[in-house]
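User: I'll paste a sequence; please echo it back and then give the predicted structure.

Assistant: Echoing your sequence first, then the prediction.
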Amino acid sequence: MKGKKPKSRLRSFLKSLMLIVLVALILVLSFSVYTIHRAVTPPEISSLTQRDPRPVMNPLPAAAESPTPDNIENTLHEEEPEFDDNLVAPERFTDDDRRNNFFTFLIIGLNEGRNANTVMVASYDATAREGHLISIPRDSLINVNRTGRKLSSSYLAGSGAGRGRDGGIRTLMRDVRTVIGFEPDFYILIDYTAFHAIIDVVGGVEIYVPFHMRYTDPFQDLVINIPAGMQHMDGETALHFARFRRADRGFQGISDYQRIENQQTVINAVIRQLLRPQSILQIPEFVDIFNEYVYTDLTHGNMLWFAREFNRIRGTDALSTHTTPMLGTSGEPMWYEILDARGIVALVNDTINPFYQDIELRDVSIIRE
């Protein structure tokens, strides 16, 4: 096994930050408009015995040569060799095992190519009023029989052959269960275009640029050209600022850690704009953005309830962020991130597990070294 690939971990962290802020802002601002018309109620968790299992998507043809890295053997099934794809939680779990007022969510961020560039599982304990969020790297190697074996390809694989958005979500739910041992209760799917649109709606953001940022990538049809000094940025320029790392010859580049700081600068600038009193007048536009770029099985009343709950949370310790433990990367050519099954099981049980019983190694299906 080769050393870890820090760039993908940092990329996942960057996009997680953006998505967390986007979800929070949309919940607090957009759904205020529905308060008069909708009941504010917590979500109802379906019974394990009554929930319809999400069907397994027909797998794509296997690759001619397996992309599995050298030294990766088989799935980590130490007690039960068969993994039932049709279950939403371990078969031994019952409704009595479910924690009260504990909710879990799959958060999906789609790029232009419809790959899931961000995959996170969040939990909210309404009794303790605390939450956890686990990011699963998009390049994680998933134990599936199809050509696309990275988690980022799950949505695209499931949505093919006319299955559409619902098929993509079902497949991603199933693949996430192989990693954490259960399927989250709800999902929130967001197109990154939403963040771009929000910046434009609030009239852009003011950001200081320390030096001339210049980078050209013809393969991505990307041109970043931001002069030094205080700049008023529209959505496209702000995302270029957040994305910038490499530079054209003769120009200065930055490290991934500096890019994290730039990402945080953009987020803070957006928050300042959204906190202005005039943002209330733009609620209809935020609702339009939500309707166009966000897809969820939560009702408006549910989301208002969560918005009210989140507003009651105080202090930075209320929401803890984590990344799934990794064993390393496969290296070239595929750059798979290899998941650490034992570390993940321990993290899940300490944070997002909605059941009184622990998730065990037999409940996940993770390819190991």
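The first helix runs from residue 6 to 30. The first strand starts at residue 102 and ends at 110.
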